[in-house]
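Exercise (ungraded).
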Amino acid sequence: MKVLHLDMDSFFATVEQQARPSLRGRPVGIAPVDSPGGTIVAASIEAKRYGVKTGTKVAEARHRIPEIIILPPTPEKYRVVHRRFRKIMSDYRGELKPRSVDEIALWMEPGGSEPAESARAREIGAEIKRRIRDEVGEWLSSSVGIGPNWLLAKTASNFRKPDGLFEIDRGNVREVLAEISLTDLCGIAERMAARMQLVGIGSPLDLYDLPPWELKRRLGIVGYYWHLRLHGYAIDREDWGTKSLGHSSVLPRPTADPRRLKPLLHKLCHRVARRLRREGWQAGALTISGTVVSGPAREWGQWGATARLAPTDRHHDIFGQAWQLLLREPPAGPLRKIAVKTYALRPADHEQPSLFDLDRRRGALSTGVDRANDRWGEFTVIPAGMLGSENLAGDAIAFGQDLKLQRETAAD
Amino acid sequence: MGTTVLNERVSVLGKFEAGKLLPVLLRWRGRRYWVQKLNLHHERAEGGDRLHFYSVTTDAGECVLRYSRNDFSWTLEEVGFSG
């Protein structure tokens, strides 16, 4: 069995270059806020050549490439292009699973010998790449990775970027793993890599070569799972479930003043509550967090506070708890970014009927507000406390799992 | 290189092809511009309206046209200058 993983190259930036041919061949960075402290969320292939990448500050990007063009993200464009390449991939037999807005994996139907499966996967991969250019946009380049499981297919897609088509198989797996670092493997971040290094595993090749019992001894069951993945076993066909739901926003000017944060907090809670209702979830816990700017060097730190909620999907409850948290556990300095995240999600149809009339009336109010906003546009009816937040926290697209696209995929 | 945001109503001659509306010719400030290439088309719901955005290349350069399904109007959103 083969897995084919498609990864669009420098997706957001390439889509903007597709829409505007005069940007092609030029360094482009996508940043929600075009200020020196703003962060590049996507860089074009041309900008990457100068070391500008996701996470680079706008000031640093301009320092490296004075002529870089900084554009705000336009999520509708990215979703449209995602839908089109997803439609192309759905023409091929197998199980399709979008991994993010710019990545889709296809578990191909097994059939024939390994070389025959391999040849078919390469042929389909090349055809998908060509069709994306022909049918969606000539500037849209993608990299396709093929492997016996998703992890190796994803690793293969990153191995020859941009515009790559590469397969990892039994014959070349050691060669590939020798060229990459632990953090190049999806699922190993800095902390996990440090933990592995502490027990003498310094490279993916170490993970591959050590016997499973030894990996289990050094890393526990996680080590055994890595042995299986790197040896081509399919153990990661997990469901694409929603675990948490949240929104965040960068503040144009850092502040610790609760009165100035209040409209934005209202807006983030309003958006979270509306999405919970739309998705049919109720949240059992809430975290507010943010990036704090402090000290003469304007160093960044993290702040956060958590509370449980009686399961709810209503703005009144979520904002009430978030506001209490902000007042009770305020950040140590001005916030540059603030986020509201709900989790411990459970389906809303398990709601216990309330004995209190007020709860029922609030539920009816939420339904009425949703209907008005569905009909007349987002933020037509808003909580009064949200006034003043008009230019903050607009539509944003998730790097990971965009819920709008997730709903569509489920309906396909 | 830069873009100018205009948001000016314009007359557009369009065609329906394979169930899709495509701009062919636009008239702006007394001049006619032929659409040479559709680079990207995307849509956005705005209340009860559905807005269609066409990023096109005309014989004079790039621009973005917006079509409102509510009142069948065309707006020249943005004009880009290359160079």
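Further reading is listed at the end of the chapter. For now, observe: The interface with chain B takes residues 15, 18-23, 26, 69, 74, 76-77, 79-81, 137, 375-377, 380 of chain A (CB under 8 Å). Chain A has three domains: 1-146, 170-238, 245-411.
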